[in-house]
Write a structure and sequence with these properties.
3 copies of one chain form a homotrimer. By secondary structure, chain A is an alpha/beta fold. Among the domains of chain A are: 210 residues, Glycosidases (TIM Barrel); 188 residues, Rossmann fold; 46 residues, Golgi alpha-mannosidase II (Immunoglobulin-like, Sandwich). Helix content of chain A is 32%, strand content 19%. The first copy, chain A, contains 19 helices and 25 strands. In chain A, helix 8 packs antiparallel against helix 15. Chains in contact: A-B, A-C, B-C. At the A-C interface, helix 8 and strand 13 of A face helix 2, helix 4 and helix 11 of C. The structure holds zinc ion (ZN) (3 copies). One zinc ion (ZN) binds next to loops of chain A. Chains A, B, C: Keywords: Glycosidase, Hydrolase, Metal-binding, Zinc. Chains A, B, C: GO terms for molecular function: beta-galactosidase activity; metal ion binding. Chains A, B, C: It catalyses: Hydrolysis of terminal non-reducing beta-D-galactose residues in beta-D-galactosides.
Chain lengths: 657, 657, 657
Amino acid sequence: MADRGSAKIGVCYYPEHWPEDMWADDARRMHKGGIRRVRIGEFAWSRLEPEFGRSDFGWLARAIDTLHAEDLGVILGTPTATPPKWLVDRMPDMFAIDLHGRPRGFGSRRHYCFSHAGYRRECARIVTALGAAFGQHPGVVGWQIDNEYGCHDTVRSYSESALLGFRHWLKERYGTVAALNEAWGNVFWSMEYRNFEEIDLPVGAVTETNPAHRTDFDRYSSDQVRELNRVQTDILRVLSPGRDIVHNFMTFHSDFDHYDVMEDLDVATWDSYPLGSLDVFPADPAHKAAFARTGDPDMQAFHHDLYRGAGRGRFGIMEQQPGPVNWADYNADPLPGLVRLWGLEGIAHGAELVSYFRWRQTPFAQEQFHAGLILPNNETDRAYAEVQQLARDLIKLGDLGATAPAKVAIVNSYEARWFLAIQPQGKNFSYVEQIFSIYRALRAMGLDIDIVGPEANLSGYALAVLPSMPYVPPLLAASLEGFEGQLLVMPRTGSRTASHRIPTNLAPGPLAGLLGIKVTRVESFRPHSAIRLVFEGEHCTFDRWREFVTVTEADIVARVDDGRPALTRKGNAWYLAGWPDATLLALILRRLAGEAGLALESFAPGLRTRRRGHWCFLFNYGPEVADISGIVRGELVIGEHVLPVGGAAVWREGPGN
Amino acid sequence: MADRGSAKIGVCYYPEHWPEDMWADDARRMHKGGIRRVRIGEFAWSRLEPEFGRSDFGWLARAIDTLHAEDLGVILGTPTATPPKWLVDRMPDMFAIDLHGRPRGFGSRRHYCFSHAGYRRECARIVTALGAAFGQHPGVVGWQIDNEYGCHDTVRSYSESALLGFRHWLKERYGTVAALNEAWGNVFWSMEYRNFEEIDLPVGAVTETNPAHRTDFDRYSSDQVRELNRVQTDILRVLSPGRDIVHNFMTFHSDFDHYDVMEDLDVATWDSYPLGSLDVFPADPAHKAAFARTGDPDMQAFHHDLYRGAGRGRFGIMEQQPGPVNWADYNADPLPGLVRLWGLEGIAHGAELVSYFRWRQTPFAQEQFHAGLILPNNETDRAYAEVQQLARDLIKLGDLGATAPAKVAIVNSYEARWFLAIQPQGKNFSYVEQIFSIYRALRAMGLDIDIVGPEANLSGYALAVLPSMPYVPPLLAASLEGFEGQLLVMPRTGSRTASHRIPTNLAPGPLAGLLGIKVTRVESFRPHSAIRLVFEGEHCTFDRWREFVTVTEADIVARVDDGRPALTRKGNAWYLAGWPDATLLALILRRLAGEAGLALESFAPGLRTRRRGHWCFLFNYGPEVADISGIVRGELVIGEHVLPVGGAAVWREGPGN
Amino acid sequence: MADRGSAKIGVCYYPEHWPEDMWADDARRMHKGGIRRVRIGEFAWSRLEPEFGRSDFGWLARAIDTLHAEDLGVILGTPTATPPKWLVDRMPDMFAIDLHGRPRGFGSRRHYCFSHAGYRRECARIVTALGAAFGQHPGVVGWQIDNEYGCHDTVRSYSESALLGFRHWLKERYGTVAALNEAWGNVFWSMEYRNFEEIDLPVGAVTETNPAHRTDFDRYSSDQVRELNRVQTDILRVLSPGRDIVHNFMTFHSDFDHYDVMEDLDVATWDSYPLGSLDVFPADPAHKAAFARTGDPDMQAFHHDLYRGAGRGRFGIMEQQPGPVNWADYNADPLPGLVRLWGLEGIAHGAELVSYFRWRQTPFAQEQFHAGLILPNNETDRAYAEVQQLARDLIKLGDLGATAPAKVAIVNSYEARWFLAIQPQGKNFSYVEQIFSIYRALRAMGLDIDIVGPEANLSGYALAVLPSMPYVPPLLAASLEGFEGQLLVMPRTGSRTASHRIPTNLAPGPLAGLLGIKVTRVESFRPHSAIRLVFEGEHCTFDRWREFVTVTEADIVARVDDGRPALTRKGNAWYLAGWPDATLLALILRRLAGEAGLALESFAPGLRTRRRGHWCFLFNYGPEVADISGIVRGELVIGEHVLPVGGAAVWREGPGN
Ligand SMILES: [Zn+2]
Ligand SMILES: [Zn+2]
Ligand SMILES: [Zn+2]
């Protein structure tokens, strides 16, 4: 996408939506706007293959040439998110089937079942054709596979294809049905199977199905995403050597294991819609109102750090919101400056691409209310100027440098999300809210953070946090045993085995030795119920969740008001026995960061910082103008000491920092 | 229904529900109560045709004769809303199909698909038989076609019949599939079709379908209502010459174009349930509590004016609530006086019929909790006396006179409702709430109002308001260009083409010249979010919605706090760039009414007025007793100067008014 | 289950879930814990019949022997709530069908349709085999039929079997279709049938179906529960003479007539989950928070009294919550002491069995979060000690004595619940909330209460309350006529006939003579709407509901603020014309109890009492420690004068009480 230490500005473009005689001018204005990357083609299947047996790649070749002529590197999308009508009519069982047994049919997008073998063959066919045609085109610098896997709840399908695939997958995993019965505990309600052909998908039962059944189906479904993706990458590796292959992931999506999919990709790109994403997030209304025009101060950064981890250091923004969007319940206008701020913040976190969605607002079909850089009448819209400013920023910064490993790591797990969604036990127990609150608390102290997967190497981190992770795989358990930094383990960790059972030694299962505790009971709380504790003189609460911990070898650092342990510590391994309110979480993390020897700051609510190379970035999400003279330690190359809401400042970090 | 300048009191009656020996006494008591019109027969199909091939019209003939003998004119309903079991069993594919693919079967009412050709033939058959039998009966003064089109969400059906009909309709509209693909913008997500047979109904897709697809399906569905209606009117025009043909429309119903259906009808009657309708309206709980026993002070009048417009001056109330109903979430008892007040208010607005639903409360089946004029044990219920009082009122008033054209018009559009429901862009953007708030604000100033359709002639009005109307048809655009009164255009008007696309010149599209503005961006707000402005010294807000307007030739009359235009004006054409709160809306309308030279009043919250002929009516919806001496300009023929809650006053307007 | 005057402690145990070499130790620890009854086997079908044609009862024989060896009497469950996969695959139409036409399939439990003849045969087959094998085993002291009828909304099924069964049932009830049409009032919307084969299930119609149709389907569905139950009891009566046969009923379940089912059973046992049941009850959040760790102070007692009535004096707790459960939205931990308190309270109300669910917390499958007496790692959990304390309590109390008939009766009706659910008329009209509020008000006065069915003999009661009972059967009407105590009749009583019609004499129908009133109109209120009245100097309200009563022979004891009667009285028969708030209800009941000559108390909010034999029990549900010296009239054998939250006290009643 971009050379080491640099970043490119991009845009998403649909030449097939516009008369061909507009293309050259579009390309010229893109270049003038500072844009150097253009993603195209990802929804164009009906134009590439207008009917069965007939293809037309000529227009795409001309579009690529036109862009290339203006020095715009093309990221070519495979169109597999939108198979055309003639194709689906030839294999109507390719649709995903919903929870109620209904096909999820034609008429929008993502109308396919990941398990369908015929559709995989069609994907291979069109990708082979595209790879052969454009794989070595000098204007093609990368490929995007499909579009937003999982969008519109499309990972899990209850189709016949999925059923047959699932049975096969189970046979591979368990060998014998007796082993499966034992692993799942099917004796519980006479759910025992006599052979794999008796096993149904975990849907349509009278009440809750076996959580082990659901866990394996979640794993199976995630694997199908990886496989459909790999069908395409395997082809493009051969036909388009040297190009980066990417996918555009989403905000807070949990239905498949992004680390697995990334094994076959080069760069983790994601689609950043700060205002829309905040509008649909389960935040409280006052928070939504305060940041309705800026976005949450941590949500974008969280995903930058998440996808930088998933991309083994390489990530980008494939779609960046340029104005109001069309899909949230309410769609506000960003404050002036935010379109540039969001891009610059991505770069601060290491992005090698900031690509805006979309070039020109569509005057037809589903997304007419989605702003672009250009109005439907071809005048420039407000965002265009902000993109130009970002381009000037990039020139000022020159070599951006590499993103150094952070001192703090949060361990993210998709499998943990599935476990907790299957049996939340308290209706408001949300993995995403928990990990995001941990991220927010750490970042508010001015820390740079890495978000890593469960297989990551943790050595070198001064502080690591393990959000609730019911099943802790052996490799991670071993890694944590050897970890030398301060480690905070959140409740429910180690409370289940790989087969979604309670471990024979109870929670925290494989971490019992490390943490020196045993959990004998848990309880969950209604909203506005909670249990109190005093920590470092502050009145705090556990809400949502708390656990009854028996200490075997650990020290009790804090107790709940009823006297039971709240926070324990065995050496560097800390265990928190409940869901902390924001105050408590901040105090605990500050305490551990202190023990880890980290230097901490206390920023105003909307100020956030991040370092990249020798640059230090500061962003003001508001709600107030900020005097940042006390924070800036160096000469500002971007911004002033009085930072408006929506403003950004950058300075070169002195040697003393 | 009634002679010019007069009005009749009616009642809905079900002779088939009661022993024949009760009929004569019922008719006698009706007449004694002042009733002169009786609607019968609209649910009686299973008694008219007890089984396939056998009909029994004798009882109905005797019922009509019995009523006629007491000088009661019969409005005979066609029974097509309730086809009997034997009929549906002969064509089980006649059921409408719901959004999830399930038939909407037998067991209640309205169990048919408007598109089903076989059912249309059955309707023609029974209507022909009824027309032949009773069309020239001297006791039959009118016909009601079917009952409450669209009730229980029955306009749109996703059946095979609808699918085939829709494809045919599209072929008629677009000629070629290429033209349709272009109009809809199907290239957007590879949704292009190769022929009309590939097109599905806009349902069952993974996410939102193409808004153009939905728009055309809404139009198609509306057309089917008109066609089924016309099948029946065509027959009755021949078989029952000289009788009025009507339909009973509903409260705030939007799913079909009532103006289209009215082209084949004589009088627009509607079913007025003030308490039930307020209970299910999205009003705030305090408002609902304040008017729980009276109904909203404007809701009935709104529909009177709406249906008077739809009926080209002729309208009536076919069903008037006489006590608690059975179908709202909560069903309050009307305050004493309201049963008469609602009737008199209808007459003030020009109704030629006020027909109460129902004569005797049913002791069986679905509507047992619905009050009538007579209790199930045949004693008179409270409403009977209020109906008698209304009859005395009518005698006092004598010749009612004609309803003069108002000075103020609101342009109502069903198509606009569909557009806005398909892509609201803000979850709370409701056409019905908007048009009703405009109506309420104007009426609170003491103005008489006409609600007219988009094809109405606007000349002669001093003030016109055009609620949000995404697609403005050429005829209306031309009419507005030539309009000489003050014109207020609400946001989103002209923002879409007939094919649900953004116009090439952006919004307000065809009104760009008239208004002298261009809209480049829109945003929507969560509840309790808003943007502030000061107008005429008052602190106001835009909530729900606001737009970014570029002024090309207009003056900026008011600005939002961020400096952008809020209200613009080019000569007599005003544009409002947001959703006004009640204060702002009232101030703006008062300003325009002032410019239009209209005399305004400021009534207490529950007082409402209306003129008919030389009579001036005043109604007190409460919550307080009102001293109306300062308002009454003439001698009271009905009511006193102290008007209780639920009271009505009428005086002859002096020559000075 | 237990000898007269005594009670047994039991536990629910799943030997099939654990290695056989653990059984003996389990049995030993049970005995040591004071346990003498063990329920087993109710979900074990797949182990009893691992495949078609092969059975394996050996393990169960060994399990029973092992328990018997430790003096543990076995209650053997029939496994019909969990038919195994091979069985359902042989008759896939045995699944219940939901409201939307979808099978409620395999994968959890209760996956059968009560109407399916083939499944009834399978039940008979397995029960015959079990009865033959274990019916005369000396260790088997009782049988539990199936498990929790109706759990997961499984009473009503919309299957083909149900359809055919329903038609047959209707033919039996009505004889001719003409009689049915007349009874249901099918003429209303042309819903008349020509033969029974035309009748569908009351589902899938466009809007509300005929309430008479729904009423009969509710009756039919209830009858199928009774019949499936009787299939099993008929067999076990023969094969296992002298053993008690029971079923485990649920909390606030309404979908079948429990009195009908009890006709074939010996003891009414029920499953008591105080914390989970409060969490899902429609109580206000503050109440839920106050009692989150104790349970509602009246909910358990209500069900004890309900099921003692249903069991003709014999009842027990088959499943008693021992810690947090897994199925509520939020699952709190009981305060220490409650596990014992709940058991002791059951005994105070006459329980002959208190059986805890479950012995050992399951480490696999659906209920892993449900606590037991033993942890999954085989250590004892907290509840074990409380069970031991309960065993010591029982020893202290010795002969418990019989439960004397109370002076106060509440008449409970399942049919009334169906009527009111079919046409609530006000969305918040809830039979269960009403009867429970009556129970709570009476119990807060220190009264012992019997909850009796509509066929119960009321003679001997000093006070009886009849909650809203739309249809009053002739036998009950006669019984009330002859009743000599004070009788309070709640609104809506007598407002419908058996065929769900309004009686020809209006409400209260058959009670018109007894009460001396006639109801001519009803209305329902939104939350926070209400109508006021003053009663005994207190400001009170009717909310949810009020009626317009005409007095024919009664006295008006109280009037609503608008002057209409609120409370009437004809001799000992009182009628309440609205839904009383808690204050009003308490005042009225205190007034009637006074007239009935009952001695009343006024306890602190969480104190509750109950007498059994010569013992008087007092329980403190909190929220405060209570000094009970003023209440205790005798020497305490259990507890102290200062009663902690969760504490219980028992003393021998002196002769003066
Ligand atoms: Zn260049
Ligand atoms: Zn007359
Ligand atoms: Zn013993």
